[in-house]
Amino acid sequence: MIVDVQGRADTRRIPINRVGIKDLAYPVRVKNGAGEIQSTVATLNMYVNLPESFKGTHMSRFLEILHATSELSLASLPVLLETVTRRLESNDAYIEATFPYFVAKAAPVTGVRSMMDYRVTIVGKRSGDDTELTVRVVVPVTSLCPSSKDISQYGAHNQRSHVTITARIAGEIGIDDIIRIAEVEGSAEVFGILKRADEKYVTEHAYDHPKFVEDLVRDVAIRLNGEPRISGYVVEAENFESIHNHSAYALIEKPVP
Amino acid sequence: MIVDVQGRADTRRIPINRVGIKDLAYPVRVKNGAGEIQSTVATLNMYVNLPESFKGTHMSRFLEILHATSELSLASLPVLLETVTRRLESNDAYIEATFPYFVAKAAPVTGVRSMMDYRVTIVGKRSGDDTELTVRVVVPVTSLCPSSKDISQYGAHNQRSHVTITARIAGEIGIDDIIRIAEVEGSAEVFGILKRADEKYVTEHAYDHPKFVEDLVRDVAIRLNGEPRISGYVVEAENFESIHNHSAYALIEKPVP
Amino acid sequence: MIVDVQGRADTRRIPINRVGIKDLAYPVRVKNGAGEIQSTVATLNMYVNLPESFKGTHMSRFLEILHATSELSLASLPVLLETVTRRLESNDAYIEATFPYFVAKAAPVTGVRSMMDYRVTIVGKRSGDDTELTVRVVVPVTSLCPSSKDISQYGAHNQRSHVTITARIAGEIGIDDIIRIAEVEGSAEVFGILKRADEKYVTEHAYDHPKFVEDLVRDVAIRLNGEPRISGYVVEAENFESIHNHSAYALIEKPVP
Amino acid sequence: MIVDVQGRADTRRIPINRVGIKDLAYPVRVKNGAGEIQSTVATLNMYVNLPESFKGTHMSRFLEILHATSELSLASLPVLLETVTRRLESNDAYIEATFPYFVAKAAPVTGVRSMMDYRVTIVGKRSGDDTELTVRVVVPVTSLCPSSKDISQYGAHNQRSHVTITARIAGEIGIDDIIRIAEVEGSAEVFGILKRADEKYVTEHAYDHPKFVEDLVRDVAIRLNGEPRISGYVVEAENFESIHNHSAYALIEKPVP
Predict the structure, then answer these.
(1) pLDDT digits (tens, 9 = 90+) for A100-126
(2) Short-list C230, C240, C241, C239, CA closest to C253
(3) B202 contacts in C (CB within 8 Å)?
(4) Distance between C107 CA and the closest CA of chain D, angstroms
(5) A with C: how many residue pairs have Cβ under 8 Å apart?
(6) Residues of C with Cβ-Cβ distance to B145 under 8 angstroms
(7) Are the CB atoms for C93 and C61 separated by under 8 Å?
(8) Residue D229 has pLDDT above 80, yes or no
(9) B248 and A59 in contact by Cβ < 8 A?
(10) Which pLDDT band holds residue A1 (cuts at 50, 70, 90)?
């Protein structure tokens, strides 16, 4: 018989907040708010707490649980967290999955369809009988500088920006809905394919809607404040400045009540 | 005269928690606990808060302040934070600098000296008249699996691990001191140059000191608990497992009282 | 009518070797050598040459072609390259797709099945009527240091290593076959799930098969030299040394005749 | 006495093209063309060839050589390469150092000075008695889309771009000179600090100098063709498109005669 070193007693009297596996690449099927399934590849972190009396956790069980999981979504996370606490004999569980998420978008004038990718993270935390769900979406938009527009006779510097929403979920809401909250507040949206008529449209739209990084986070915050399915959030905007080699950045936090 | 768009009034009534510059690469001179100066290159984030009544902050002032700064250290951060709040007319300020930090180490048997690099982050937060200082060090060590050693007739899998300490500073302490707290608790230390006698030493030392990722964080936590100059911390360990393509991970947090 | 700026004449008389789109994230279905389909997410680069007489290429056509592509494989690349040259009216075409690729592996003793991920790149180059196909696989293995084993009374440092094969394809060969050429030459293979009996096996197997980074590339090169479906290659090994904070590295190149 | 496993004979009859250390972080002093010294941090790769008759190389010698090196530059690389071949008893040597490199630039109108960072790589290859030196610089610039400007009633999308020059050195030339070749050919240059008058200038300058990714590489190629101290080159441009979530890319290669 092979000994179980992890199961031995520990005498240091120090409980561990989180222990488990990190940076596991895994093929996943993700369900969106509309119930549609998308195949993608996630990077997963899965942790439990460890009481002071145990020397180690049983790492391979995380992978066995994952192997038996058919799909990942905000709706399925609570069950997965419950399975983890039961199989790992823990009180707390934490699951975090980050994956590229694709949405087919229509170009604004020609309607030509193409894929846009967003980096999405879903996080589930279970502590005792409480479960918290959080979604993070990183949404690329165009931002156009109001100051540059105002002070210049023509033109205005603009750039790709990332608007990141990290939202505590308080009701049934789809990933796509959260992405849209950020996307519509850029100076212009970003697309895969733009034909010439579309490129003219987004260029002029950005020029007509200049926004500082401060405007991006404020305008997204206003929308988030009106969304009852989100109880707290952090919204960040990062402009990869076209005139500098560093970013402009802003953040607004609304704590969960 | 060129208009000051950032200085205009804003009517959305949404204050911004943090706004400023992100991911700025900058050559810095860093002072360690012993007062010695080291030239390195930092990635800097510098933020202030923005009251609801202002449309934007003045980004270029962050760089002007940095341009006039001769060196960066835990000791100099409070002054820099005070300068930022005064020049940006803000209540809060946040400065974060991440840089490679080098320590000349002697090999354990031959004493041959070589450089070891650590990723260090120093963070200063000022809110009103309160200033908090935090240091994060990422310390590479060797970890050797106790289970693998116990169940195998010979050998034991081992790997490079990162022990990360994020410490709230409550007294005068050097970066080197915090690094040592993590470094001495690996199964073995990591070095730049090891001659054959040294390699024999660290190989046998690791085999004599097997540690799970759980052991790493507990043993470092015990040391941190005994350090009065650190009032709260997070300690993490990540093993880049040699037998898997994912990491094992553990975390212990002691909140600041 | 909207003008076609890209289609205008250029007078600088400088042809462009490659022009197109880079770092496009895209969901793809990949076919392996056994004809099975796998859903994954690729990062794509697609280029053509541009004669000196044209000002610009038509970037959106690359995405239109991709949008109409149902699956990606070594077998389908030649057709895709031909489509690109025709639609972009070019002489040359270059397509590069990098994606995580998963293989279900059985643990060595218990036979427990789990997923292993490999980073795979397939490259197709078309120039006139010639088409070249190249595959790159990055294969994680365990390496155990022969010197450390020999000089130590017990134990031996080991670590995760990456063996990378970049192979010019000269016959019908599957991605899995190329992965196996690298994988079997580690000191031990790497797995997703290892039960205790498996962990004992891989630990002892690595100790019984110590290999320097030099041994890894030589032993893989010998196998590649005996593979008629590969006409030329570069094999690299990188050991993420457990006793250092840098890598050991070796490379052997056999040019295509 | 401790055995020298690396020095043993090898019977596989397979020579190794490159073997050594990779991804070593090291503080370096870099000399520019004007003879000025700059402290920075490099990531280093150092390799030699290994004849078929030897089992392994002596990795620690690379670090010992580096430890004794006071500064790194195109001028000092040949001596360093010669030292490596002598100490490692090899025929070939390869040294590659990548580091952030800083230049103090004056803003275009106000003349305010600030630091710009560039990623620079210097590569030295020695084979027998021949030594080749190569420099790569990654230069951030602004690019403004000619098509977007032409088809839109106002505005034009623009973005940060990277122009990368990889140049074989044929005469005494400074890193700064190669950076300038790329920098002046953007739609506008990129700066650390821009006051309002400067921001107006670069915005209008970019609008007055629209360039496709194809224009960037052609215009830089024309300058490189006229530079006798560079005997061959690859010039690349990558636009981090503000209207897409992927890059536009172009490359021109002039082989060394």
Answers:
(1) 999 999 999 999 999 999 999 999 999
(2) C230
(3) 157, 243
(4) 31
(5) 62
(6) 199
(7) no
(8) yes
(9) yes
(10) low
Banded pLDDT at A198 (limits 50, 70, 90): very high
Q: Is B2 on the interface with A (CB under 8 A)?
A: yes
Q: What is each CA distance from D140 to A225, D10, D178, D215, in whole angstroms?
A: 38, 48, 13, 15
Q: Is the pLDDT of residue C2 over 80?
A: no
Q: Look at chain A and report how many structural domains it folds into.
A: 1
D218 close contact with C: CB closer than 8 A: yes
Check pLDDT > 80 for residue C73: yes
- The answer to whether residue C33 scores a pLDDT higher than 90 is no
Q: What is the CATH number of the domain that holds B139?
A: 3.10.270.10
Dihedral, CA of residue A238, residue A243, residue A246 and residue A252, to nearest 10: -30
Which residue of chain A comes nearest to D153, CA vs CA?
A204
**Residue B155 belongs to some domain of the structure:** yes
- Residue B34: pLDDT band (50, 70, 90) is confident
> What is the DSSP code (8-state) at residue B7?
T
Q: Which residues of D touch B195 (CB under 8 A)?
A: 60
Q: How many CB pairs under 8 A join B and C?
A: 129
Chain C CB within 8 Å of residue A114 CB: yes
d(CA C243, CA B194): 9
Chain A residue with minimum CA distance to D119: A245
Q: For residue C162, is it within any domain?
A: yes
**CA-closest candidate to residue C65, choices C87, C50, C33:** C87
Residue D113 with chain B: CB contacts under 8 Å: 67
pLDDT (0 to 100) of residue A31:
84
Instruction: Examine residue C5 and state whether it is found in any structural domain, yes or no.
Output: no
For the record, the structure tokens of C71 come out as 């699956």
Q: State whether D150 and C5 contact (CB < 8 Å).
A: yes
Look at residue A135 in the predicted model and tell me its pLDDT.
97
For residue C9, being part of any structural domain is answered with no
Work out the percent of chain C whose per-residue pLDDT is above 70: 99
Mean of per-residue pLDDT scores for chain D: 95
State which residue of chain A sits closest to C107, comparing Cα positions.
Answer: A60
**Beta carbons of A23 and B247 less than 8 Å apart:** yes
Record: contact B142-C200, CB cut-off 8 A: no
Mutation to test the B interface, candidates D60, D98, D103, D204, most B Cβ within 10 Å: D60
Of the listed ranges A36-40, C44-48, D40-44, the one predicted with least confidence: A36-40
Distances (CA, A) of A178 to A74, A189, B14, C119, D245: 13, 15, 20, 31, 18
Closest partner residue to C242 (CB to CB) among B142, B204, B244 is B142
Residue A56 has pLDDT above 80, yes or no: yes
Neighbour subunits, D (≥3 Cβ pairs < 8 A):
A, B, C
pLDDT tens figures, D163-209: 999 999 999 999 999 999 999 999 999 999 999 999 999 999 999 99
Q: pLDDT tens digits for A153-168?
A: 999 999 999 999 999 9
Are D221 and D188 in contact by the 8 Å Cβ rule? The answer is no
Alpha helices in chain D (DSSP H): 60-67, 77-87, 146-151, 175-183, 196-208, 213-225
For residues A206, A209, A210, A213, the Cα torsion angle rounded to the nearest 10 degrees is: -100
Residues composing chain A: 257
Sorted by sequence, the CB contacts under 8 Å of residue A27 that are 6+ apart come out as: A39, A40, A41, A42, C38, C39, C40, C100, C102, C115
- A158-169 and A230-239 beta bridge pairing: antiparallel
How far, in whole angstroms, is CA C57 from its chain's centroid?
28
Nearest chain C residue to D210 by CA distance is C5
The pLDDT value given to residue A4? 80
Range with the poorest average pLDDT among A134-138, A195-199, B7-11: B7-11
* Domain membership of residue B171 as a residue range: 16-254
